[in-house]
Amino acid sequence: MTDRYAVIGNPVEHSRSPQIHAAFAKQTGQDLTYERILAPLDRFAATVDAFRATGGKGVNITVPFKMDAWRYATRHTDRAGNCGAVNTMKWDGCEIEGDNTDGIGLVRDIERNLGVGIAGKRILIVGAGGAARGVAGDLLREEPALLAITNRTEARAIEVAQAVNALGTMQVISADSLPDHQFEIVINATSASLSGELPRVPAACFARGALAYEMMYGKGMTPFLTLAAGAGARTADGLGMLVEQAAEAFHFWRGVRPDTAPVIAMLR
Ligand code: NDP
Q: Is 172 in a helix, a strand, or coil?
């Protein structure tokens, strides 16, 4: 029997996850299908219930449901435990296990694919939604010199810092004082680029030779990447992270680890 998986989001039609998981399944000889499911904004749980009832085996969760997924899961992996956001679930009867593979996906893309070490670096995360929550703990585990967070709504940045404080200190920096700081890695984890907007990040905060990482993918030179390039930073989008987090989800479901390099090359 072919096993069914899906990505649930709203919107979801832009998701490249079906293409990625189809490539992983072909590469590893796993018998599965992977579809997109658009969930109404107030019906995340009902949408997952329906997919489970019709034989679905597991799901990925994208914007804006990662925190709903955390609440839906009956238990969490260690890396999803504190962060309050889940992007991958599988189940056994009524037992729903929630994981978060975004952080390991980002770390692998920065370290392995882009060849930039995280240990000892000064890092800024811009944004405090599900994506920022998902990556904060994994970045702290790599022992940067500083992990800082800034967000349009500062209270949400404080919540993210509190959520991961068992793993290390995350410094909350207001947008007004950002020009006083410099970072070697600046990660745009806002959804501002979706609407072509620039979050409040000054050009002065990119250190010489910094990496500017845009989590969004497929939008070319976003206002954030354009600002960073103008400040002399190296730029990268989130396509590598997308494929790496998908590979970790595939491993969580199937126990098999696909090779990501050919899939990143195919999507580029
Ligand atoms: P959320 O909706 O949970 O959070 C959105 C964040 O963006 C909030 O911090 C919000 O600030 C901020 N924001 C939105 N618009 C603006 C704006 N105009 N100016 C400044 N800040 C803004 O989204 P996610 O955290 O789930 O996703 C964030 C981005 O990361 C998305 O673009 C998503 O596609 C991408 N992503 C990519 C992944 C990959 O694998 N490459 C994986 C996961 C996410 P406030 O709190 O003030 O509202």
A: strand
- The three-state secondary structure class of 231 is coil
| Secondary element (H or E) of residue 92 | strand 88-92
pLDDT of residue 3: 97
13-58 tens-digit pLDDT = 999 999 999 999 999 999 999 999 999 999 999 999 999 999 999 9
β partners of residue 171:
148
Residue with tokens 């190296």: 234
Q: Furthest-apart CA pair in the chain: how many Å?
A: 59
**CA–CA gap between residue 71 and residue 267 (Å, rounded):** 33
Read off the pLDDT of residues 208-266 as tens digits, 9 standing for 90 and up: 999 999 999 989 999 999 999 999 999 999 999 999 999 999 999 999 999 999 999 99
Pocket (CB within 6 angstroms of ligand 1)? 63-64, 66, 102, 105, 127-132, 151-153, 156, 189-192, 194, 197, 199, 215-217, 238, 241-242, 245
> For the chain, which domains are there?
3-100+242-267 (3.40.50.10860), 103-237 (3.40.50.720)
Does residue 161 contact residue 170 with C-beta atoms inside 8 Å?
A: yes
Q: How far is CA 259 from the centre of its chain?
A: 19
| 57 belongs to the catalytic site | no
Percent of the chain residues past pLDDT 90, beyond the cut: 94
In the structure, what pLDDT confidence band is assigned to residue 128 with cuts at 50, 70 and 90?
very high
What angle separates helix 130-141 from helix 154-163, to the nearest 10 degrees? Answer: 40
Rounded CA-CA distance 248/208 in Å is 32
